[in-house]
Amino acid sequence: MRPQFHFSPQSGWINDPNGAIRVDGVYHLFYQANPHGLVHGPMHWGHATSTDLANWAEQPIALYPEASGQCFSGSAVLAGDGAVAPEFGAGDGVLLFYTAHRDGPPSIEDQAVAVADRGMTRFAKFAGNPVLPTPGPRDFRDPKVIWHEATQRWIMVVTHGQSIGFYSSPDALNWQFESEFAEGRHDPAPNPGPWECPDLFPMRVQGTGETAWILVVGLGRGHISGGSGTHYFVGDFDGHTFRNRNVADLELFMDWGRDYYAAQSFSGMAGEDPLAIAWMSNWMYANHTPSEGFRGSMNLPRRLQLAGGPEGLRLVQYVDPSAARQFPELAGGVPASAVYRLRHRWVAPAGGRLALALFGEADPVLVVERKGGDRYEVTMLRQAHPAIEVIRGYETHFSFEAVVDGAFDLDVFVDNGLVEIGCAGGRHWVSNLYFPTDPAGTVTITS
Ligand code: FRU
Fold first, then answer.
1. What is the pLDDT of residues 419-446, one digit of tens each?
2. Residue 367: pLDDT over 90
3. CATH 2.60.40.4070: does it fit domain 332-446?
């Protein structure tokens, strides 16, 4: 079941993407890794590189856990993109921000830095860590750092329990608290999961000169389709405070699926459509998926655009063309292998219904129904699978509404059971893992 173009480790466990950055034309992807087991364990930062975002070369482990803590999620910036303290000795190198996590109870989390050379072959934890110590026993992790041009300071967004904290620094060493943001969906459980792996970046609104800011937030539990999922907010950021342009309870999702979590945008991409990558699993069952030798993979890297429409500003996403072109286009219903891309334009009659089935199975993975006018209902499905161990919360039957003017375009990427579907021209995405008996089985579209 190893995917071909979704990054997976040679062995061991992985979760979140970390330190995503492009330097000198090379994409560096770090990730949460337990190289010694197939479940979440002592966290290292694994490392892989690519020049085409589809073929990855695994590199030696970058950061190791030690007494000061495991190396939880974080981000990378090029020191030269802003002003950095001489104490780092960073030169033209890279700063990796990570969370030093010490298990409790209660567990303690600090923000720490490691310094790497520009080619990212040598990594040294900063002797003066932590740069942002714990405010007490609470979820305080996953620093994502960017250089904020307008105020000439670094900004760090970080998990603050069930909200996101904003910090600023003139030199990436001395950090001060700015504000906290907590609008949107909260896990209703009595012991709610934290908001994890935040991200923050500016985007140009398509066809205008206007800039809006995107705040990305991971919900470890309580995603609308079950378990973990990734939300975003559209707003404004002045270097101090993020202001949501929408009402507090409007929910926007980077992906409606069960398997798109801890998304992170690459740094080093100024002037291009932002590029985001996520972990293709879900904390509800991640430790229990069928596996042999390795467990976990990333989603395909997607480019983001921000477009206006009847509902307001929304992300439109497309798989990065250099990764997308690696997938052979499906011709006819019988795939030549378990790795393919299928594009389908559906001009729906009033009341029309389309069903997409994969893997030679009768049950569809996606059903789209035209409800009237430009309104569609999209349903994603995943059956409990009799041939594999029973996975907690794996079975899926979930619907959402899409508003589409014109044809309903589907862009389907299949990679050995990993399925990512762009709906309505990339306005909605659905990413789900499957464990089919025949990953190269027949594809059927019924409409
Ligand atoms: C998200 C997360 C992060 C944490 C990491 C630990 O999936 O829980 O908040 O830093 O995983 O591996």
1. 999 999 999 999 999 999 999 999 999 9
2. yes
3. no
> Is the CB of 99 inside a 6 Å radius of any atom of ligand 1?
yes
CA of 133 relative to ligand 1 center, distance in Å: 18
State the distance from the centre of ligand 1 to the C-alpha of 200, rounded, in angstroms.
17
Q: Are 301 and 317 contacting, i.e. CB atoms less than 8 angstroms apart?
A: no
Q: How far apart are the first and last CA of the chain?
A: 30
Atom of ligand 1 nearest to the CA of 228: 7
Q: Which DSSP helix (H) or strand (E) runs through 26?
A: strand 26-34
Evaluate: CB of 196 within 6 angstroms of ligand 1.
yes
Q: Which helix (H) or strand (E) holds 321?
A: helix 321-324
Report the top-level CATH class of 12-321. mainly beta
Q: Is 15 in the pocket of ligand 1 (CB under 6 A)?
A: yes
d(CA 237, CA 226) in angstroms, rounded, equals: 30
Predicted structure pTM score: 0.97
In whole angstroms, give the CA distance from residue 21 to residue 266. Answer: 5
* β-strand pairing of 294-295 with 12-23: parallel
Q: Which of 18, 72, 221 to mutate to test the pocket of ligand 1 (most atoms within 8 A of CB)?
A: 72
Residue 288 to residues 39, 154, 254, 386, 393, Cα–Cα distance (Å): 8, 39, 24, 15, 11
Domain residue ranges of the chain, discontinuous segments joined by +: 12-321, 332-446
The two three-digit tokens of residue 213, written as one number: 């800011």
302 contact partners, CB below 8 Å, separation of at least 6: 275, 276, 277, 317, 318, 319, 320, 429
Instruction: Give yes or no for residue 73 CB within 6 A of ligand 1.
Output: yes
Q: Do domains 12-321 and 332-446 have the same CATH topology?
A: no
What is the C-alpha separation between 201 and 43, in angstroms, rounded? 27
Q: How many beta carbons lie within 10 A of that of residue 349, not counting itself?
A: 9
Predicted confidence (pLDDT) per residue in 74-124, tens digit: 999 999 999 999 999 999 999 999 999 999 888 999 999 999 999 999 999
| 3-class DSSP assignment, residue 295 | strand
Is the CB–ligand 1 distance for residue 109 below 6 Å?
A: no
Residue 363 known to be catalytic: no
Q: Tell me, in angstroms, the distance from the centre of ligand 1 to residue 138's CA.
A: 14
List, in sequence order, every residue forming a beta bridge with 366; answer none if it has no partner: 356, 380
- The residue ranges of DSSP E strands in 184-311, in sequence order, are 195-204, 211-219, 229-237, 242-244, 261-265, 275-279, 294-295, 302-307
Q: Is the CB of residue 43 below 6 angstroms from any atom belonging to ligand 1?
A: yes
In 3-state terms, what secondary structure has residue 276?
strand
What spacing in Å lies between the alpha carbon of 395 and ligand 1's midpoint?
A: 24
What pairs with residue 236 in β-bridges?
243
